[in-house]
Amino acid sequence: MDTTDKQIEHLAKLSDFSLSEKDSKSLGKDLESIINYISQLDELDTKDVEPTYQVFEMENVWRDDEIIPQEASREDLLALTKEQEDNQIKIPKVL
Amino acid sequence: MSKYEITIGIECHVQLSTKTKLFSEVDNDARGKEPNSCVSPVDYALPGMLPRLNGEAIKFAIRAGKAMNCEINKHSRFDRKHYFYPDSPKGYQITQFYHPIIGAGYIELPDGTKVRIEHAHLEGDAGKLSHFGNYSLVDLNRVDTPLIEIVSMPDIHSAKQAHDYCKELWRAMVYAEVTNGDLYNGNMRFDVNISLAKEGAKELGTRAEIKNLNSFRSVEHAVEYEYERQAKILDKGEKVVQETRGWSDATGKTTPQRSKEEAQDYRYMPEPDLPPINLSQEFIDKEAAKLPTTPKAYREKFSGTIASDTLEILLDYKPLMEKLEEITNLFSGDIRDNGSELSKEPRNDGSDAAAREKTIGKISNWFASVLLAEEKSAEYLNDLPSAKQLANLAEMTEKKELSSTGAKEVFLRLFDPQMKIKEAKEIAKELNLLQENNLDALEKIVDEILADPATKKAQEDFKAGQEKVIGFLVGQVMKASKGKANPSVAQEILRQKLKN
Q: pLDDT for B272-307, tens place per residue?
């Protein structure tokens, strides 16, 4: 297993994905080419450049602390889940 | 056996009591509410949902920071901390990893020790999981409740100090009015890092982290347990494993916890959906000025007047300290009610200070030993008697118009919904508790008792040197006065008369 395979496996584990070997290989290939492409940026000297956190020149975007009734009801939202019980979202045991 | 020095650092999560959540406009107070009833599409992390920052949480963070003597950072921003677990539908927590809003500061413990705060940051809480046989249930009400996580420096060196730090932090946050401070419901949770090193060693030992403690006592006991556990390992020449452990109040033990992740790899990245926070000094100063009196300020103010163990008890109850402050203000400045007993005679500053100290001394003792001993004390704290009622009661006791037992009775009646509209004196009168201090009236009663042939033998015995008989005679006076005589005055008159 080369480095990329290990990284893919690690990332898949962190996200609780199960990947077939075939998927893992093709994903690895894709990621590798993306990373290679982006690596071109390494040629630039960014020592004195401030990191960009966002592309909009916005700051202090706040809202008031007021409760606003939600358009989506509790039932609407629960209906989006795969399974529910007693108004809670039912999931496979995690502990 | 060698001696070890213990080093402790504590991380504390405080739930802020804003009206809405940190990133959505839904109710932040889910107490007593149905699961998943305080949620929005943002909390469910539906595709395309944008977090919208609650400005009030920033103001709360400024107050909380100032309550810990911290620098407030003018520039702060949010980051994503990735982890996969069903308590967070987003797959990440929005936190402040690189640029927190609260900088360095300190908390001073009652014994004067300063525990430095490394920093504190704003972040969203996770949802709540309940585990059943072969499934778990998720309630998202708590998702993105605003938290501040307070990270201390490793300045704590005993279980007692760990306890005191957590309690002082709790007080600081409750007095700053940024949290409901209900530990039972998880409003404050502590993660405690503990390591041992040989005394005098330059380097710290390997630490274990005890996660999610929710009471001061658990913190103290967990530290005691860990000291013993780690000391045993080191005594054998073995190494402590760096790990996360859980604490059980039931067993009084810590046990290793399986980590959420195989390896902790949070892949922090700047949160692109939330523009940075850039605060002006004016904005910070304006919010900082709203910080109410801190527990430390109250401690300094009352330490000369109230015994320190009583003061430390009372400091757990903000309404009581506020009331004592209000009573203090009756004596100085302009807050003088024309009808009040307190304002009838003009006082110079000296006697005013003495009267104030006596009053505060009495009332603080009633608070600590009478009020807090009541079953309903929690309820009473929400609706305390007025400063004037309490000060008048103290003054009556000082003037011996009430016995100490009588005073306690009237004091408790001041919390009775039927009685509390009345002044202390009125209540004392109704309960027939006013003591007879009128010397002429008392003298008359004493004369009657001494003239009674039934007391003749007692009088002779007393004159013959039987000191304790005086108690019997005072008792007779009390009986004749229907309990209203002031016993110490009665005794004085009796002694005077029997001398002749």
A: 999 999 999 999 999 999 999 999 999 999 998 999
Burial of A12 (0-12, 13-18, 19+ CB in 10 A): middle
Domain chopping of chain B, boundaries: 4-288, 295-430, 439-499
Q: Summarize pLDDT for B131-190 with one digit per residue, the tens.
A: 999 999 999 999 999 999 999 999 999 999 999 999 999 999 999 999 999 999 999 999
- What class, spelled out in words, does domain B439-499 have in CATH? mainly alpha
Long-range (24+ apart) CB contacts under 8 A made by B458-461 are B459/B498
Give the residue-averaged pLDDT of B314-326: 97
A63 touches chain B (CB under 8 A): yes
Distance from CA of B23 to the nearest CA of A (A): 9
Best of A8, A61, A66, A80 to substitute, by most chain B Cβ atoms within 10 angstroms, is A61
Residue B270, chain A, CB below 8 Å: the answer is: yes
The pLDDT of residue A79 is above 90: yes
Q: Supply B459's token pair.
A: 């009088």
Q: What is the mean pLDDT of residues B379-406?
A: 90
For an interface test with A, the pick among B88, B129, B143 (most A C-beta atoms closer than 10 Å) comes out as B129
Q: How far is B123 from chain A (nearest CA, A)?
A: 15
Q: Predicted ipTM?
A: 0.88
Spell out the residues 6+ positions from residue B110 whose beta carbon is closer than 8 angstroms to its own: B164, B168, B299, B308, B312
Q: Going from the N-terminus, what domains does chain A have, and what CATH number goes with each? A: 1-42 (1.10.20)
Q: Which residues of B touch A85 (CB under 8 A)?
A: 135, 137
> Whose CA is closest to B90, among B124, B57, B120?
B124
B20 vs A: CB within 8 A: yes
Is the CB of residue B17 less than 8 Å away from at least one CB of chain A? Answer: no
Q: How many CA atoms lie within 13 A of B176 on its CB side?
A: 28
Q: Give the gap in angstroms from C-alpha B39 to the nearest C-alpha of chain A.
A: 7
B346 pLDDT band (50/70/90 cuts)? Answer: very low
